[in-house]
């Protein structure tokens, strides 16, 4: 679990800063978040295909040399894949949530600065609590509600400040709200699908990427982003392509790390990890980009951090009490 959390946190932080750099902090200003998300998915699919073929090549070589079973197992995590419509239909709700998550995530990152982006994403804990109560029927204790209220106060304090500063920032803040909502739904539905399905978990990941590509394509096309994106004069510059491809490769790794995080932890742990990661990213943005932050902004971040800490503390305490009763 610790490895899954660390892997996700590091790769996700790197992905956010590189994507933001490509959008408006570097020399290119590629303001096409939907197209970028779709391109990332295409690269993810190509990486899956290449990884699968490499796995099979290595396995064949090992078989020829009669290498031990443990080594061959390490190179055989991707199973044989055959697209089946019935399976795609079952995974479609997860893919729709995933598309919503990455779409609004990139839109938020495009419209807002990194501090606003991370504060907006911190509300995912509150959405997870609401959805686990409504969709899964779990009871929510008052102290958990209190912790969520603290997070919500910090969130809306930032939202109020952004409304006073910039229309663009406030739009980005709203996109962050939607991204957090879809993130909570994605983690819940994916965890539920994994627990109820006997399929290899990597099969679910592959189907998710394929379905997400199909769902996101018409959105990019009918919004006109594709036409605008391919008309930029730097599209085929080697440096731009190198940065764009690098962000796509890192996004592929983030997709795997996010998948592993949800696989090995609960939806609530996933939300806590994302919220705490957002706090780290906010402070990194202050240090790296010399972002100015007001006392009011620090206070809103403090509410979010304290609320997240209390939420984590209460959940760990509840888990230990439950395990004690079971024993």
Automatic annotation (TrEMBL):
InterPro entries: EmrE-like, Sugar_P_trans_dom, TPT_transporter. It is a multi-pass membrane protein. Pfam families: TPT (PF03151). PANTHER family: SOLUTE CARRIER FAMILY 35. One of its GO terms (cellular component) is membrane. It comes from the Eukaryota. The lineage of its organism: Eukaryota, Discoba, Heterolobosea, Tetramitia, Eutetramitia. This is Predicted protein. The keyword Iron does not apply. Coiled coil: none annotated. The chain crosses the membrane at residues 6-23, 35-54, 144-160, 172-190, 202-224, 240-261, 294-314. Residues 10-312 form the Sugar phosphate transporter domain. It is found in: Membrane. Its main location: membrane. Keywords: Membrane, Transmembrane, Transmembrane helix.
């Amino acid at each position: 679990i610790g490895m899954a959390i660390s892997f996700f946190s590091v790769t996700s932080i790197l992905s956010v800063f590189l994507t933001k750099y490509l959008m408006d902090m570097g020399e290119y200003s590629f303001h096409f978040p939907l197209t970028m998300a779709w391109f990332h998915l295409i690269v993810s699919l190509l990486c899956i295909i290449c990884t699968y073929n490499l796995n099979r090549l290595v396995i064949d070589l090992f078989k020829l040399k009669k290498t031990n079973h443990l080594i061959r197992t390490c190179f055989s995590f991707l199973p044989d894949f055959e697209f089946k419509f019935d399976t795609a239909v079952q995974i479609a709700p997860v893919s729709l949530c995933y598309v919503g998550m990455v779409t609004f995530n990139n839109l938020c990152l495009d419209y807002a600065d990194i501090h606003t982006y991370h504060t907006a994403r911190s509300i995912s804990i509150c959405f997870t609590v609401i959805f686990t109560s409504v969709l899964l029927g779990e009871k929510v204790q008052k102290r958990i509600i209190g912790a969520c209220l603290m997070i919500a106060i910090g969130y809306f304090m930032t939202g109020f400040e952004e409304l006073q500063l910039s229309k663009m920032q406030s739009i980005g803040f709203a996109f962050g709200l939607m991204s957090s909502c879809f993130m909570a739904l994605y983690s819940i539905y994916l965890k539920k699908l994994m627990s109820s399905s006997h399929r290899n978990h990597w099969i679910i990941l592959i189907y998710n990427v394929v379905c997400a590509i199909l769902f996101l394509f018409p959105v990019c096309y009918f919004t006109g982003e594709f036409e605008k994106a391919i008309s930029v004069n730097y599209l085929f510059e080697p440096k731009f392509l190198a940065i764009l491809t690098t962000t796509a490769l890192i996004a592929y790794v983030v997709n795997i790390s996010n998948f592993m995080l949800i696989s090995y932890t609960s939806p609530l742990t996933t939300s806590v990890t994302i919220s705490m990661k957002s706090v780290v990213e906010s402070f990194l943005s202050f240090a790296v980009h010399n972002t100015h932050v007001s006392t009011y902004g620090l206070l809103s971040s403090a509410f979010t951090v304290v609320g997240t800490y209390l939420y984590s503390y209460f959940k760990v305490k509840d888990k230990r009490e439950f395990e004690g009763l079971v024993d």
